[in-house]
Amino acid sequence: SRITIRQITPRYNSVDSLKPSQTVYDAFRLFSERNMDVLPVMDKGKLLGIVSQKAVFNRLLWELKFSRKTI
Prior knowledge:
There is one protein chain. The chain is an alpha+beta fold. Helix content is 42%, strand content 18%. A two-stranded antiparallel ribbon has the order 1-2. Strand 1 and strand 2 form a beta hairpin. The mean pLDDT is 84.
């Protein structure tokens, strides 16, 4: 038997997405609230890309590491 994607994905009334102007904190909040690992990035109804929780986390760690001033 062939299982379809529709059979294994949760049913949502709408698709949660991020806008390019949103912050990584907005992304983490949405990842957490919706228990999702990836989110589409949309602008004016157009799909610009997909961002993963891991990619956002790694970028945040990189920013924190290199934003600190060394003495």
